[in-house]
UniProtKB/TrEMBL annotation:
GO terms for molecular function: oxidoreductase activity. It comes from Baudoinia panamericana (strain UAMH 10762). Belongs to the asaB hydroxylase/desaturase family. This is Methyltransferase. The keyword Oxidoreductase applies.
Length: 237
């Protein structure tokens, strides 16, 4: 069962926290509309997200954005030069493991890595529908506070074109007991923040499982547009 966050508490988008659940939904309206312009996304949208993270995430002293991708499947969807384009990922996963996170930090920050790693390091994804609400293919999030240490298996990723090793991700062993959530008709202002890594071992939720999933056909309005979204990944120190 995947529960709708709109109905789980008195709060309109549920009462979740990054440290207890690994995710939270926040209201974050944006006036940005230039989703087809990579330079404007970098110059205008990422600073907006930086302000959002500093407002919503405790202990957010330094932010490094390292990936932004448009997700859609319809032919009429966005093709953004300079951004990753990806179809929906319909596999339960977490984007990184500790090994790939440490490699990423060292590759991105070089001589500053040891200093940054002496404190808390996190990866948080910022996921937003664009152009219209989500009707057909939502993003499901599992409560990271209910994960066990042995639920996640490290899996190497290789480039499809060359077979060259790329990095590692986490894939999941099936069991009963995961608590899954989504946001019905998630709109552009309904932003999802979720963890892919946290070096702080004292918090309940250090990572968050997620996957795209198709909503039941009978719930999808006739002629509903296919979901389009932007996902940005941030290293936070």
């Amino acid at each position: 069962t995947i529960r709708d966050v709109r109905g789980v508490s008195d709060a309109p988008l549920g009462n979740f926290s990054l440290d207890d659940n690994g995710f939270r939904y926040v209201k974050a309206p944006t006036t940005f509309k230039a989703w087809s312009s990579q330079p404007r996304i970098a110059q205008e949208y990422l600073p907006e997200l930086e302000a959002l993270l500093k407002r919503e995430v405790d202990g957010c002293d330094e932010i490094l954005f390292y990936d932004a991708r448009i997700r859609q499947e319809a032919d009429e969807g966005l093709r953004v030069k300079g951004l990753s384009y990806n179809p929906f990922a319909r596999q339960v996963h977490t984007d990184n493991t500790e090994r790939s996170v440490l490699d990423k930090i060292r590759n991105m920050t070089d001589m500053k890595a040891d200093y940054l790693l002496s404190g808390r390091a996190r990866i948080i994804n910022i996921w937003r529908p664009i152009k219209h609400p989500v009707y057909d293919c939502g993003l499901a999030i599992a409560d990271g506070g209910k994960l066990r240490d042995d639920d996640v298996l490290e899996c190497d990723r290789h480039r499809a074109d060359t077979g060259q090793y790329w990095d590692t991700m986490g894939v999941i062993k099936y069991r009963d007991g995961y608590d899954w959530y989504y946001c019905s008709e998630q709109a552009e202002e309904d932003v999802l923040l979720f963890k892919n890594y946290d070096s702080d071992t004292s918090v309940k939720a250090r990572i968050c499982l997620h996957t795209a999933f198709d909503l039941p056909p009978e719930t999808v309005p006739p002629d509903a547009p296919t979901r389009e979204s932007i996902e940005v990944r941030a290293l936070i120190f």
